[in-house]
Design brief:
Elements: E1 8-14, H1 18-29, E2 35-38, E3 54-55, H2 63-83, E4 94-98, H3 101-116, E5 122-124, H4 126-132, E6 143-147, E7 151-152, H5 155-168, E8 172-174, E9 179-185, E10 188-194, E11 197-206, H6 212-217, E12 226-235, E13 247-250, E14 255-260, E15 263-268, H7 294-307, H8 309-313, E16 316-326, E17 333-336, E18 343-347, H9 353-370, H10 393-408, H11 429-434, E19 437-442, E20 445-451, H12 471-483, E21 486-489, E22 494-499, H13 503-510, E23 522-528, E24 534-544, E25 547-552, H14 557-566, E26 575-578, E27 583-589, H15 593-600, E28 615-620, E29 623-628, E30 637-643, H16 647-657, E31 664-665, H17 668-677, H18 713-721, E32 727-734, E33 746-749, E34 752-763, E35 768-776, H19 783-788, E36 791-795, E37 798-805
Parallel strand pairs: 1-2, 1-11, 2-8, 4-13, 11-18, 21-31
Antiparallel strand pairs: 3-7, 4-6, 5-6, 9-10, 10-11, 12-15, 12-16, 13-14, 14-15, 17-18, 19-20, 21-27, 22-25, 22-26, 23-24, 24-25, 27-30, 28-29, 29-30, 32-35, 32-37, 33-34, 33-36, 34-35, 36-37
């Protein structure tokens, strides 16, 4: 190893485990040779050394997961040939049993999606599963899924190979070198302080595994990350086990199985996991183990042995417990730290550091070198936790027990976390609960998902991929929006006051649309990066000459605020204030919305006096509120921004006044179905940083000729000049009213696979499941091809005839919202 600590490096990486070595490997591969890796002890001494080393995809539900996984599997498979360092890679195959109809449905939907990204999967019979894994009991299995190209690797050897590859291209690696702090200046990271001296740097990367939270905290960073106990047992040698035995993951028993030196390794992801060292991870914990809790784990082992009964009779060679770190939402923490310039994070891999390390290393290396992420970052961008609300000891203590099983077990389309709830509640929470709301959770917010007739009925009787007990209640909400009037609590929408002498200049710079408009005008716009990829889609309302309101979904809160702050120019004066907690947003929508509003307000709410896409202060009963004439559901209506002080009074007034119009509370399920009938887009859900507004059908909100241009203008102009894209976002409606779409269903044009649905819901007005997704054809995808093509959507292994459209299938002329 290199012994002389340099005084400067282009990039310093804190942490010498799988992630740190992957980042160094990929940075040097991109030509950045001046890279230093600092490891407080020995390479792999944190959690990498005791990782299971399984390279298996389970059920991947997003493009980025598939892309990172397949990249990493292919890299690991060829790493030994590249570096000359043995990695222990073995392509032994992988089996997932499905013992319940719901698991069969989940797997069939998921594996079809994964095949699109090059992951080979075959559905096999229980007998075929038993033939491949003869020590397993598949008597209760309905069907199983076989992944022949997956396998296992040795975590330590693989990390050493990555380190060798990085060093061969100039990287320097220092073991036994502890980082005490990140050196900062003027809001930026400029180096690190170690026990062997300071190193100044242009980039500092925190990749210290479970220590990342406390390293970041010393520099003012919020990294919600918690270590948990992780268990596996290794038996004595058993009959019927060979080195070529496939890997098995069993979500029904929260266990995984593989060969280990002639015995069987049984790993657990139990549903009552134990957090480890809530307050502080010991700095000297090296190649460490935790004393196992036999009493707590015995029932889980018994259940795991039901899949392999022979293991219960074998002797136990080792019962191991070691820490693995997890994030509150089970997605990694990756990207530029919002609180500190030139500081990057790659942590929180949720026990998948070996599997996803290469993909994360590749993505972050490109992000550092090129300035943008090459894969969809909306789910794992560290900026999503910018407000710090998920990082208290109490929250981590409450959420962590649920995380292991949540990452490993069965999943359902509308399932929420059950622990650490109630973090963010609007002022209307109690009113909505009393009205029968069933709450889901998103980014800490308690969101009314749907409403039952009584509070006692507001529960899910059984999670399912089919119609659940609340489906008909949701349908009534949907019909009320189309035929009468609904009221929705949308307080979770993030709201920022942007004001000051240069507020208009800032927002003009980041906005594709023209936001230099008259006060009282509301503008829908995209924000894009230098290569034209989305960074947000939102509304900007000009309140006064130097005062604007930016409104965006709760899933983009941290990223939106950080994007604005990063683009304030030198010498500019702009203040950005998060006013979300103080404003309760109440939406009123439907054909009878004006009748209701006019009953409670003396303001002139006619179309002539209060046209679409405008905002102004109006009276509502005793109160003054700011009303925006805008919609995300495709109906006449207003979004009322009500100070939280009198939100309950305004809500009560609207409910009372709305009785004669049949007013109904409506939840997120209805919001989704309404907006998808109108084919409205949503950044972070159906468009991301790898998509652009032209191909997404939002070219109307891009003003290429606006004075001064905007970030990404030249990239979008080039895309626009190329003519009709080959890749376009379309709306789809299933012609069979029975199947349901949620997202990831494959799209077929004239029998050829051309894309997948990004998000789906049931269109109660259109009479079938509806969704939007990108379709890519081998020639420009013109309207005549879309309109005349034979379109099908693959739903759980069956193809269903569909209608495709470039325009919204519901009210394409927007007559209902402009009346």
């Amino acid at each position: 190893m290199t012994t002389a600590l340099p005084s400067h490096a282009q990039t310093v990486i804190i942490g010498g485990g799988s992630i740190g070595c992957n980042i160094a490997y990929h940075l040097t591969k991109l030509g950045m040779s001046d890279v230093v890796v600092l490891e407080r002890d020995k390479l792999t001494s944190g959690t990498t050394w005791h990782a299971a080393g399984e390279i298996v995809p389970a059920v991947l539900g997003s493009e980025w997961e598939c892309e990172l996984y397949t990249y990493g599997r292919n890299l690991i498979a060829g790493l030994e040939d590249e570096t000359g360092q043995a990695t222990g890679w073995r392509e032994v195959g992988y089996i997932q049993p499905a013992d319940t109809p719901e698991r069969v449905e989940e797997m069939r939907r998921g594996t079809a999606f994964m095949r699109r990204f090059g992951i080979e999967v075959h559905e096999i019979t229980p007998a075929e599963a038993a033939e491949r894994f003869p020590i397993g009991d598949f008597s209760n299995t309905i069907t199983a899924f076989w992944y022949p190209k997956e396998g296992r690797t040795n975590p330590v050897d693989t990390t050493m190979a990555l380190a060798r590859g990085a060093r061969s291209r100039g990287a320097k690696i220092f073991e036994d070198t502890s980082v005490s702090e990140i050196i900062t200046r003027d809001g930026k990271a400029v180096g690190v302080r170690t026990d062997k001296g300071d190193i100044m740097a242009e980039n500092v990367v925190i990749a210290a595994g479970m220590w990342s939270r406390q390293i970041g905290a010393r520099a003012g960073l919020n990294l919600p990350l918690q270590a948990a106990e992780h268990y596996y047992l290794i038996t004595e040698p058993m009959e019927g086990i060979s080195r070529d035995l496939p890997l098995v993951e069993d979500p029904h028993s929260w266990a995984y199985y593989r060969e280990e030196v002639g015995g069987l390794l049984v790993g657990l992801f139990e549903p009552d996991a134990a957090p480890w060292n809530i307050d502080h991870i010991p700095e000297n914990f090296t190649f460490g183990e935790i004393d196992p809790d036999w009493d707590r784990m015995a029932p889980h082992l018994e259940r795991a042995f039901e899949r392999v009964p022979q293991a219960a009779e074998a002797g136990i060679r080792k019962f191991f417990c070691g820490p693995e770190s997890f994030t509150p939402d089970l997605a990694p923490l990756v990207g530029p730290a919002p609180e500190l310039g030139n500081c990057w994070v790659a942590a929180g891999l949720n026990s998948l550091g070996i599997l996803n390390g290469p993909g994360i290393g590749m993505a972050l290396a490109h992000w550092i070198v090129e300035g943008h992420c090459p894969v969809d970052h909306t789910a794992f961008n560290v900026e999503r936790f910018a407000d710090g609300s998920h990082n208290t000891p109490a929250f981590r203590r409450a959420r962590t027990p649920e995380l292991l099983a949540k990452s490993f077990g069965a999943h359902y389309p509308n399932e929420s976390f059950k622990t650490a709830r109630g973090l963010k509640q609007s002022a209307l929470y109690d009113r909505l609960k009393d009205a029968g709301a069933y709450f889901s959770e998103s980014h800490g917010w308690e969101l009314p998902d749907w409403f039952a007739p009584t509070p006692e009925q507001a529960k899910i009787e059984r999670y399912s991929w089919g119609r659940q007990n609340w489906f008909d209640w949701h349908a009534e909400e949907h019909r009320a929006a189309r035929e009468g009037v609904i009221i929705m609590d949308m307080s979770s929408m993030s709201k920022f006051l942007v004001q000051g002498r240069d507020a208009c200049a800032l927002l003009s710079r980041v906005s594709c649309n023209e936001v230099d408009v008259e006060p009282g005008r509301l503008v829908y716009t995209a924000w894009v990066n230098e290569v034209g990829g989305f960074e947000a889609d939102l509304t900007v309302t000009r309140l006064e000459r130097d005062k604007f309101m930016v409104v965006v979904g709760e899933n983009s809160h941290g990223h939106t605020e950080t994007w604005m702050r990063r683009h304030i120019g030198e010498g500019e004066f702009v203040t950005i204030t998060d006013v979300t907690p103080g404003i309760t947003q109440i939406n009123i929508h439907g054909p009878k919305a004006r009748d209701l509003m006019q009953k409670v307000s003396d303001a002139d709410l006619s179309n002539e006096a209060f046209p679409f896409m405008t905002g102004r202060n109006i009276d509502v009963g005793f109160f003054n509120v700011f009303a925006l004439r805008v919609t995300y559901v495709g109906e006449l209506g207003w979004e009322l921004q009500v100070p939280a002080l009198y939100a309950v009074q305004v809500y009560d007034l609207l409910i009372e006044a709305g009785q004669e119009f049949g007013i109904r509370n409506a939840g997120m399920q209805t919001l989704s179905s309404l907006r998808l009938e109108k084919a409205y887009r949503d950044f972070g859900i159906d468009v991301d940083n790898t998509d652009n507004p032209i191909e997404a059908g939002l070219g109307f909100a891009v003003k290429l000729d606006k004075p001064g241009g905007f970030i990404g203008r030249d990239a979008l102009a080039e895309i626009k000049a190329a003519g009709v894209p080959k890749n376009r976002m379309l709306q789809f409606l299933l012609q069979d009213p029975e199947p349901l779409m949620y997202g990831n269903e494959l799209i077929y044009l004239n029998g050829q696979e051309v894309g997948h649905i990004q998000v789906g819901a049931y269109g109660h007005t259109l009479g079938g499941a509806v969704g939007i997704g990108f379709a890519e054809w081998d020639e420009p995808l013109k309207a005549e091809i879309v309109n005349s093509g034979d379109w099908e959507i693959g739903v759980a292994g069956k193809r269903v005839k569909a209608i495709a459209s470039l325009k919204p299938l519901f009210d394409p002329a927007m007559e209902r919202i402009r009346c």
